[in-house]
Amino acid sequence: MLKVHSRCDLSCDHCYVYQHADQTWRGRPVRMPPATVRAAARRIAEHAREHQLPDVHVVLHGGEPLLLGAAGLREVLAELRATITPWTRLDLRMQTNGVLLDEELCQVLVDHDVRVGVSFDGDRAANDRHRVFAHGGSSHEQVRRALALLRRPAYRSSYAGILCTVDVRNDPDRVYEALLAESPPRVDLLLPHATWDHPPQRPGPGATPYADWLGRIHRRWVDDGQPGSIRLFEALRPGGGGTEAFGLAPADVLVVEADGTWEQVDSLKTAYHGAAGTGFDVFDHSVDEAAGHPGVAVRQDGVQGLCATCRACPVVDRCGGGLYAHRWRTGSGFDNPSVYCADLFRLIDSVDAYPGPAQAPPSEWSTASPLDDLLDDLATGHGSPQTVRRLADDQLAITRMLLAACREMSDSAAAWETLADLELTAPEAVRAVLEHPFVRPWLVHRLDPAARSDVGAAADPLPALAVAAAVRAGVPVTVDVPVRADAITVPTLGSLLLPGLGERAEVTVLPGGFRVRGGSADRTVLLDAGEPSAGWRPVRNVPAGRLLIEDGDPYRDCYGQPVAARLDDPAVQALGRTLVEAWRVVCRDVPAHAASLDGGLRVVVPLAPDPARPLRSATARHAFGAVAVTPHPDPETVAVLLVHEWQHAKLGAVLDRYDLVTPGQGTRITVPWRPDPRPPEGVLQGVYAHLAVTQVWRSRAATDNGDASAHAARFLAWTREGADALLASRSLTAAGERFVGQLRHALEETRVGSG
Ligand code: SF4
Ligand code: SF4
Question: Does 315 sit in the ligand 2 pocket, CB within 6 Å?
Fold first, then answer.
């Protein structure tokens, strides 16, 4: 959690930052200086790299982060994306009171793929009980206007939900209805901060007003069919997983204050002055050092870190002793149950007594269908990483279906059994292999009757997939693998070229590698050996990143144009450097596209050089997760190619699942970017790619006095004309019309907002 601005434009009387025991904000800089943002980003990147974290979550917090203004916010977000995303997937969030939110700020949030939670306590009377300006005026209308902005299709991808602080004097029904009216993706209900020194308001001993109040909302929510996600109720259910406030999961939040000091969760500010301090800062101390602070470490201990009363409690696995700050009592410190203990116990009882139907609730309060949400998000031009992961999941499901079909043709029971066993014991290893972009082309080839005459090319893929997954999982198995042109390919890892292997080779997975025997050949491949084993051609990584350069898998040849043969080391290093630079350019120009690429692009395939056409790029419908490019020395150019091709990949994945174009009409549409009339699907692909390229050039035009404006104007005109021609052609389905209509809207936003 980054405290990027330490002051606020509201003056809520329940605010733990300014109104409770801790007053350290008074000595801190008003806004986090750029050098501190950079140091924090580097610490986070360092931690992700050292621990190989698949993702990290960074929340911009305050005070009020929108006080940074659009330019200041853009600077902070660009720094975080550029420094952290080469190492891990970055989930960016913000918590705001919403008062200052306007179109320009919304556009910054969308551009950088930030999901925003808005603090809002319900109906006007409830909200104005605490959430007021210093002069006492209401903030209700400003916050509702912010929520309405976030519901607009252009900004909806940035709407994360509402955070509502409970006050039992408010009418729970009116609060519930006011929250529901804002269609939030998720609602968080928070108990007001209190300690044993300063307990919450209660009518008398033994009363549980918070459980009663929340229980009323819980019953409404269940009776209404659980129309959206309320995190508190979901977390308290058996197996609900908990939150920072409930359950026994280890605490995993650290705060960077505006002056760069590491702090513990800032709800501790409610306990006593300086309670959240660690004595560490981002300039001199790593995340690990801060996380080693005893106050953080004790919250890694599960039930052992709780007081004796909680350890003996029958609902401790779900309550977890409540929020750490709420356990504070002068004298015994945090070694107490929550000051809300009686309410928590009773609330868990109420949730159990009124469970509702067994099915999980939908994750959003939205009335839009899942397809509408998917298309609306992609129509922003980029689509969020969550949407890209949803597309990746769809693609994986298709690959699994093809795999099952190929099983019918496989004579390797051992391969199928290995994959089935690993699916139970090491599902991540199986997933990593099946998500390799060239597995699906292999399976498709295997199932194509026309390809079967080419015995080598249509070889059974199951054995090689089983070997790849077993090597990744470190599970010793032996499988017979078909040999193609004296080589076996182990998808995601590399190829072994070994003359004399014959038609089939016996592959035994060993610790750190595998042994291959067949014909007159016998070779052991150790994957982590300094020098690759003879004949072994490993897949190579882009330096300092997760992207693979694939120039060995035979099924990468699926782009309708020649792919490059394996590059020598200097060539692969040069391509890697260009890709790293191109990545920085994408982060600089269109960070939301960088986040989208980061969500799904895994492989770059070098195309064969062609002096007549030195600049080419391609995407293959069956190879989601990969783009092909000619090795080109200019990162600015490669950045545009990556963004352009990734649009085709995403839209191709959508078209695998949904009809956006009415099939079989034979329509042809004239477009400005090609001389020949195109089928509607081709126009749709062109429009979607050009929308992204327009966004790149609009961004460059803001700082570039050269040709950027002219390029932006040309792509804008092409995109607009193409979209209008599609809408006029009557060739789109209802979903297609919605998509192109939203996309057209995003185009105008791009015109106004990003340049
Ligand atoms: S909006 Fe948030 S930070 Fe600002 S005064 Fe209110 S509770 Fe505190
Ligand atoms: S209900 Fe009370 S005793 Fe039980 S775990 Fe929660 S705070 Fe501890």
Answer: yes
Q: Going by C-beta distance under 8 Å and a sequence separation of 6 or more, which residues neighbour residue 578?
A: 631, 632, 633, 634, 635, 638
Q: How far apart are CA 661 and CA 734, in angstroms?
A: 9
Contacts of residue 668, Cβ cutoff 8 Å, sequence gap at least 6: 677, 678, 679
Please tell me the CATH code under which domain 2-194+204-353 is placed.
3.20.20.70
| CA 306 to ligand 2 centroid distance, Å | 9
Residue 234 Cα to chain centre, angstroms: 21
pLDDT single digits (tens) 631-670: 988 999 999 999 999 999 999 999 998 899 998 788 899 9
The ligand minimizing its distance to the Cα of 131 is: 1
Residue 372 has pLDDT above 80, yes or no: no
Report the b/e string of 458-496 with b at 16+ CB within 10 A: bbbbbbbbbbbbbbbbebebebebbbbeebbbbbbbbbb
Could you say which ligand is closest to the alpha carbon of residue 338?
Answer: 2
Considering only CA atoms, which of 615, 548, 608, 614 is closest in space to residue 579? 548
Both tokens assigned to 710: 């002219």
- Is the entire prediction scored with pTM above 0.85? no
Cβ–ligand 2 distance for 507 under 6 Å, the answer no
Q: How far is the CA of 62 from the centre of ligand 1 (A)?
A: 8
In the chain, what are the domain boundaries? 2-194+204-353, 409-538
The CA distance from 28 to 33, in Å, is 11
Which residues, listed in sequence order, are joined to residue 509 by a DSSP beta bridge? 514
Across the chain, mean pLDDT equals: 90
Looking from the CA of residue 337, the nearest atom of ligand 2 is 7
In tens, the pLDDT along 180-226 reads 999 998 999 999 999 999 999 888 878 999 999 999 999 999 888 88
Ligand 1 site, CB within 6 A: 8, 10-12, 15, 17-18, 62-64, 97, 119
